[in-house]
Design brief:
Largest sheet: none
Shape: elongated
Strand content: under 5%
Number of strands: 0
Structural class: mainly alpha
Order of helices and strands: H
Length: 50
């Protein structure tokens, strides 16, 4: 029973860490194409974050 409780607590701690890192990190601007390129079928950002 104690091992199961420890495993559940570990999952909560790991998820809390992921949430904290996701909320606190802010990636910098990355240059990207504004228009889709049909030749290479490259993906582009839906909305610029800059």
């Amino acid at each position: 029973m104690a091992l199961a409780a420890l495993a559940v607590a570990g999952l909560f701690v790991a998820n809390a860490h992921l949430v904290i890192v996701a909320v606190s990190s802010q990636p910098g601007c990355v240059p990207h194409d504004k228009v889709a390129d049909s030749e290479t079928a490259q993906m582009r950002a839906a909305k610029s974050g800059c």
